[in-house]
Amino acid sequence: ETYGHPRLLFDSMLTSIKLPIVIRAEINLVLVVVTALGLLSRLYGINFPKAVVFDEVYYGQFVSLYTKQVFFIDESGPPLGHMILAFGAYLGGFDGNFIWNRIGAEYSSNVPVWSLRLIPALAGSLCVPLCYLLVVELGYSHLTALGAALLFLMENSLIVQSRFMLLESVLIFFLLLAVVSYLRFHNAQSDSPVRLAWLVLTGVTCACAVGVKYMGLFTYFLLLGLAAVHTWQLIGDRALSNVSSLGSVVLMQVVSRFLALVVLPLLLYLGFFYVHLTLLYRSGPHDQMMSSAFQASLEGGLARITQGQPLEVAYGSQVTLRSVSSKPMPCWLHSHKANYPIRYENGRGSSHQQQVTCYPFKDVNNWWIIKDPGRYLVVSSPPRPVRHGDVVQLLHGMTSRLLNTHDVAAPMSPHAQEVSGYIDFNVSMPAQNLWKVDIANREAEQEVWKTILSEVRLIHINTSAVLKLSGSSLPEWGYRQLEVVGDKIYKGYQPSGVWNVEEHRYGTSQEQRERELELHSPTHIDINRNLTFIAKFLELQWKMLTVKHEDSEHKYSSSPLEWITMNTNIAYWLHPASNAQIHLIGNFVTWTLANLALAVYVLLFLSYLLRRRRKIEDIPEATWCQLLQAGVVCAGGWAVNYLPFFMMEKTLFLYHYLPALTFQILLIPVVLEHLHTHMLRWVPMTRLGLGLNPVTLLPFS
Amino acid sequence: MSRPRRRIQRMIDFVRLPREVTVCLCIISLCDLICFSWDETHFGKMGSYYINRTFFFDVHPPLGKMLIGLAGYMTGYDGTYPFLKPGDKYEHHNYWGMRGFCASLGSCLPPFAYLTVLELSQSLTAALITAAVLAFDTGCITISQYILLDPILMFFIMGAVLSMVKFNRQRYRPFSAPWWFWLVLTGVNLSGALGVKFVGLFVILLVGLNTARDLWSLLGDLHLSLMDFGKHLLSRVFGLILLPLFLYVTIFAVHFVVLNKSGPGDGFFSSAFQSRLIGNNLHNASMPEYLAYGSVITVKNLRIAGGYLHSHWHLYPEGVGAKQQQVTAYLHKDYNNMWLVHRPNDSDEPDLVRHGDIIRLEHKETTRNLHSHLHEAPLTKKHFQVTGYGINGTGDPNDLWQVEVCGGQKGNLVKVLRSKVRFLHRATGCVLYSSGKTLPKWGWEQVEVTCSPYLKETPNSQWNIEDHINTKLPNISLSVLKPHFLEILLESHIVMIRGNSGLKPKDNEMNSKPWHWPINYQGLRFSGVNETEYRVYLLGNPVIWWLNLVSLGLYVVMVAAASLHCRVLLEGGGLLLLGWLLHYVPFYTMGRILYYHHYFPAMLFSSMLTGKVINLHPKMNFEIGCSLFSSSVYICFSLCLSKPCSFYMFHPLSYGMRGPLAHDPDSTMAGLKWMDSWEF
């Protein structure tokens, strides 16, 4: 308030200028040294080998797509990780021209190997000082912290993982930074802006960790849990809440924590996708997995075709109908000049009418004409739009057959009806070719059928069957195209029974010959359509979570149980001629010590817990709290990053264990310091306690 | 209150009303149903197996089926009904005993719930509401009418919860007779629940957590000496761990003693196990003792539930290695499991096969040789493909295998049944291996067989010779080492767990998702599809289920509000909420196929919580939100009154309906199809 007046502010500035200008710097030399060691160990000679090493083959293709700004989907994780790697490529001026197809392939001269590997290596080396800081924040001595940093520094697997274009070191960096900044926030005494900055930094780094790999969620939830407990204690602190003015302080605290740890990460996560979608605006290899609307928003590809189509589907429109379900693959309603065989292999009969299938490639036979029953085939002027609930016929453009279904078992799914292309040849089978248009995502009852946007069910009038993609493919006689059936027991919303118009134009020719020419010529009129960011985000996120690759077993895949004992390794690279090799394998001493430390910690914790319950206080309250907090961060961090893998069905590798290992390593010096300061004093007093305690024997046996 | 009056009060508390209501409801319609439905084919058949004493394999532990079989036996069912497909008529067979047994256990649920809630809340209203919820729920009635495991399972779960709650009430009279009684009863019910289905593990977890909390508070009580605490601990270890374990093992012992004849489940088990079964070809087997050239053999994988080396006329499909004949591992006994042992050259002089010999295995039915080559195997891509190749025994050098007895030396003979054998492929050096993965439809869902380049000795790569037919050699009676009981127990568990996780949804089947269940999204069709058939549809009474859902949410809100305000957690309800969570949440992580009826144990807990929530409001005397709660509670209460009405509306679901489907205005269910996903 004193600075409120401009005059006063000026005065105070003057007085401060009068003082000598002094910078007082404290430099923790130990920290500097370990950082330097970290940098040295991670950065030294990172451009060797000049060949694709292990998963670089996988991340590399995305980096290339990024530099070319081509849209792709990677179901393994959110986009931030690829963005960070792509940033390295940008720094090195990579043009994206490299074919990432084989581990061990030599890099061509246009690939800036050094800058591609720089960012993960930097992140990996900065983890070393972070380990130091984390242990200090947990309340342990600097010697202990130095121990933690050195153990981390000398962990072979972490070194290997940091030195290549891989994401684990970046993830671990963000995880450690999140924990350190949360502890800084928690340990800071006063309500200073610096304290708030640590809180915000926690939120930001959590979002980054989750943005690099979904695995970051585990540590994020652990921190959220820790924050929830701390906040709960704050609320319960009667000394604070009873004083009415302090009540609002508590409220402020709760709100600020909620904003920084929940809302901010969510917004940032959306932000990553926003940048991702803004950067990648060109159509690319994974277009077909997305909906027509999404594809139309990308430059090139479908957008080139759909740009300028009429929006409203009218009687006489020529359309291609795409199945909304992309299982087993995206495809368009299709028919061709071939009939169903009279008898199938298993002896069942068919209608012997023209086949109707779903075809996964663009083709002139994918065109259908929306026809008003009993009327002409051209669009009237003005166009008469088709609305929800209208009854239409669908005429196949090239063969003039009408889309038809009847009570004949479908070829592959005999419980459903066969769908055929029908033309009246005066045979005994009557035409059943009327379909009701049912717009699944309508907002009004009389809604008009819109190109790309409307998701439409076609319900057969005679049998109320729904036109549906069955998911199986036809045998040789159906050219292995996908089967389309009429499903009588269709219910709810199944994507396989929903279609949308992708390409669309108003038909103008009455004559079949002219119409065929029209179908062969590309579409042209102009209207622009855009999807909102949120709609795109939701679709992309949903696709990333649901699209699954075939589970292929890998030569170096392993099970979580093998990780603890390091019963597995991964060969990252092998020189074809000189037999030089790079392996991912841990430092056996560190792994054993870490496992031992965990076991000792659990035993210590249990024995203290039980004895405290009997009101036997071996260690002071503050030490107990410190031990508890270290346990939550280190043992808890290990558990949340390790145990969930037992429930995962995907292919797992040793490097999935590294985040868990990081936290486990931190436990070693913590347990050692505790044993040193408390157990040595405690041993002679065992007689007073429960008697024989296994923990007391452990360090000396 | 004087003692006798208190006793009278207690007698009144023991209102039998809810029980009678359900008993009536269940029994009335039971005998009307003359055709059996859905899973009855399954469990009814197993009841018959017990009566006929034939060995079978099922993914659930045996107690439930044993009790069904016992009930059938007691009521004169002779075990001859074939149980072929759902919807067949029972005709003259005496099936009512089995159904009546399940129904009577099912009708115990409302009174059990009544007593539990009475203990937890000390309120008659809450208890009556709970009992009414369960008594008028169409789902519970439907599921307890038929020969299913679920009513038996739910009976034991509710029994365990009731006795646990009763035991908690005895806290201030430790080591008294009722204290011991309820403790032991809890243990007995736990073993019962686990003995029926593995879902019983969840109630064990609930009781375990409750006991841990109990012990924790005892430990904190400094008046109690460590000696006394030890007594508490040991008595619980005895009552809740050792006793149930003993009973559970006993159930299996009875199971194995009763089922002593060979039956359809043999192939799932090891050769040693099969030798126990009367009628099995290994029972008192007599065959040539040592493997010889020219013999017809079957080869079984040593992995538990490993299957026989098998081949058939079908080829590997396009794109899966070479298009040659499939070789798989098959769990059932079959002609296609037979193989002929040959020398590499075709002379079959009767000589014994020795360790290190090179042999050729010819498939007896199709005359193809066991063959491997450098194509990748269909599922385990690191391994090589194994096929059937050649015709009439002539093939190529890739058909040669080297026999090795594990732990043997050159020249050792191969003992039938007792030797562990490896088959090393001559050309590539890989070893014949069964990966345990199920092949897709083209492989008839049999188990993959590969040739593994990794020569680690695992049961997957070890085989034994099971059948051995050679007319030129004398048969010797083999007293195969009878397996120890604990070995059988372990083996049958591994087989059951494998079977359970192997139940994956088929491609075209609609898989029920756990989130469907609490909102009553979709039921399960028990019998009948068409208008003319007699239809039964398992679906909870929607009024009740949605009320349960609302009260769950309400409870959480109340606890949150109460703990924020006075930081006290509400007793009793937490136990029920925990029970609901434990019986519901784990299903989200299960990979196996799920059904609607899996929710019913969880539904019991949420129903009890409903009673509890409705009763909570008088105690919540603090200002904030009180009016809000009580108003919503009164809404709930008025909903409760609608329970009998809604039951009347929906009763045709459980008691069966004929005639048109619900979309027809003439149907009994007209206008009641509130959700599109219901199929009646």
Structure in words:
- The complex is a heterodimer of chains A (701) and B (680).
- Chain A has 701 residues and is α+β, with helices and mostly antiparallel strands.
- Helix content of chain A is 45%, strand content 12%.
- Chain A contains 21 helices and 14 strands.
- Chain A has helices at residues 6-18, 29-43, 56-67, 80-92, 113-137, 142-153, 156-162, 168-187, 193-212, 216-236, 238-241, 244-279, 292-296, 302-306, 512-520, 533-546, 560-564, 588-613, 621-642, 658-682, 694-697; strands at residues 317-323, 332-339, 354-359, 367-371, 391-396, 402-409, 417-422, 435-439, 456-460, 466-473, 482-487, 499-506, 570-574, 581-584.
- In chain A, a hairpin with a 7-residue loop joins strand 6 and strand 7.
- In chain A, helix 2 (29-43) runs parallel beside helix 6, helix 3 (56-67) crosses helix 4 and helix 10 (216-236) runs antiparallel to helix 12.
- Chain A is elongated.
- Chain A starts with 5 loop residues before the first helix and ends with a helix.
- With 680 residues, chain B is an alpha+beta fold.
- Chain B has helices at 3-13, 17-30, 40-52, 63-74, 96-106, 109-121, 124-135, 138-145, 150-169, 177-196, 200-220, 226-258, 271-274, 485-502, 542-566, 573-584, 600-616, 626-655; strands at residues 286-287, 296-301, 308-315, 325-330, 338-342, 358-363, 369-376, 384-389, 400-405, 421-425, 431-438, 447-452, 463-469, 476-477, 524-527, 536-538.
- In chain B, the strands form 4 sheets. Chain B has a 6-stranded antiparallel sheet with strand order 10-9-6-5-2-13, with no helix packed on it. In chain B, strands 3, 4, 7, 8, 11 and 12 form a 6-stranded antiparallel sheet that branches.
- In chain B, a hairpin with an 8-residue loop joins strand 11 (431-438) and strand 12.
- The two termini of chain B are 54 Å apart.
- The interface between A and B is medium-sized, with 16 and 18 residues.
